[in-house]
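Quick one, T. Sequence first:
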Amino acid sequence: MPSKPSRETAARPPQDLQAVTEQHCLAIRWDEDHAADYPFKYLRGECHCASCVDEWSGVRRLDPAMILDTIVIQSMRLVGNYALGIEWSDGHTTGIYTWQRLRELCPCPRCRGEQS
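Structure tokens:
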């Protein structure tokens, strides 16, 4: 089973990222040997801002079933050197995705422990 990235590796910014609207995914290249496509709907559903997850109880407020399959990224911005801020087509703008969080959410087979 593959090991999780070290805390230092997980906190590193990606080498490249691009919203690929035609494929409804955020393409991230972490390094020469690691790239992944993050489906937009999946990423939107994983937002951890206070609007989407109750900050006191940790209970998810956002119902993933309410996220449209057609959701897209309207714009992206760097937040310092540690995260990505995303403006979604549903108007949501308050969530940020740290590099570490994006690494934890990585849907690639290697990170999910799936056999090739």
